Amino acid sequence: MVVVFIGDSSPATLPLPLAAFTSLTITYKVDKASERFLNLAGQTLESLAAGCPWPCMPIVASLWTLKAKRWSDFLIFSASRTVFLHNSDAVVQLLKSCFTATLGTNTSPISCNGGVGALLGHGFKYHLCGGLCPVAPGILYLRAYRSIRDIVFLTEEIVSILMHSVREIVCSGLLRERLEKLKATKDGIKYGQASLAASMTRVKLAAALGASLVWISGGLMLVQLLIKETLPSWFISVQRFDQEEKSGGMVAMLGGYALAYFAVLCGAFAWGVDSSSSASKRRPKVLGTHMEFLASALDGKISLGCDSATWRAYVSGFVSLMVDCTPNWVLEVDVHVLKRLSKGLRQLNEEELALALLGVGGVGTMGAAAELIIDTGI
Q1: What's the DSSP call for residue 215?
Q2: Alpha carbons 33 and 183: distance in angstroms, whole number
């Protein structure tokens, strides 16, 4: 066992197998002849050290830096990313950084413009004077997520960060609107309307990022957990929005639309939009459970704790996306559930959406669609 003393603190140690493997790899000469062995052993050593208690990887990196100083930047980066493997709070902060960089809500030069470029950066880039440039949060997450031990908590955290991002978007939009409220666009649309459209675009971007992070982190399993458990629990639990009255309910409304885009994109990543993939066989059961939840809540059988504007925006947004983008999903939902959903949408004054839902529901919903046309005259 290797013991390293750090100042006056207690000694940091390496487990005997890791210490032996580290000693073995360091004995190789760092030249072209041994490069093929080091490429194989290096990946094994990094994975082994990252899985050991903290701070094993920093110790290994320090020892190897003494051996090959030109690898110091890469070794420091490899050691620093192991923090996310042992500390869930650090993972949450990294996820927040991904949203901040993508949406451009940070004043830092690396992320002030936002977009995918700020999220992923340019890989590993060096300063002219030497040293590794700051690594973009997306690159860091791509290097760390595979080794995160507990990924179940990620769905709740991503939903929470997504809703916080919506509040940030609305607040920044309202600030711009106050500064330019007397201006008009070339088409004569008042700035407030243009601001809402711009905010909606950024909300969609945030939802797309959230869906991508869920899919990358846990694949099909995490998406199904999100649809079946996380989202229903979120709507049922009491959500407190620290929003100002002057927002006019925009935070709640855009939050609902954000969750709708987020959920549909997660499902599209996992199941596809048709029935050509093997994963689509699991779609009817999971989707049916979620649609049953929507119908029961609209029927009043489930009490919701979220803002009514958020719930209304989510239901209308989710159903609209299904009707327009994934009609094959609608065909897989039980006919009785579709009829209940249609009735609930009518209670929300969404008669046209209710008719559109029945219109793509197949033969089983034709009678209900005809009755709706007669009753409403649509």
Answers
A1: H
A2: 68
Mean pLDDT throughout 294-314?
93
| Angle formed at CA 175 by CA 170 and CA 178, multiple of 5 degrees | 125
C-alpha–C-alpha distance, residues 106 and 109, integer Å: 8
* Cα-Cα-Cα-Cα dihedral sign, residues 64, 70, 76, 82: negative
- Domain residue ranges in the chain: 2-83, 88-143, 201-333
Q: Determine the Cα angle at 13 with ends 7 and 14, to 5°.
A: 140
Q: In the structure encoding, which two tokens stand for residue 169, read together?
A: 């978007």
Which region among 47-56, 73-82, 109-118, 159-168 has the lowest average model confidence (pLDDT)?
A: 109-118
Residues 60-110 pLDDT 10s: 778 777 777 766 777 777 777 777 877 888 889 999 999 999 998 664 444
Cα dist from 110 to 102, 129, 142, 277, whole Å: 10, 19, 18, 39
Residue pair 157/95 in contact (Cβ under 8 Å)? The answer is yes
Contact 252, 310 (CB under 8 A): yes
Write the DSSP assignment of 237-275 as a string of letters. Answer: S-------GGGTTHHHHHHHHHHHHHHHHHHHHHH-SSS
Q: What sign does the dihedral 107-266-257-184 (CA atoms) show? A: positive
- The residues with which 126 forms a beta bridge, in sequence order, are 132
CB of 353 closer than 8 Å to CB of 319 = yes
Share of the chain above pLDDT 70, in %: 78
Which burial class, exposed, middle or buried, applies to 318 when counting CB atoms under 10 A from its CB (0-12, 13-18, 19+)?
buried
Q: At what angle do helices 191-225 and 250-271 cross, to 10 degrees?
A: 40
Distances (CA, A) of 337 to 136, 276, 340, 364: 45, 24, 5, 11
User: Dihedral angle at the C-alpha atoms of 170, 171, 175, 178, nearest 10 degrees?
Assistant: 60
Name every residue whose Cβ is closer than 8 Å to that of residue 107 and which is 6 or more positions away in sequence.
none
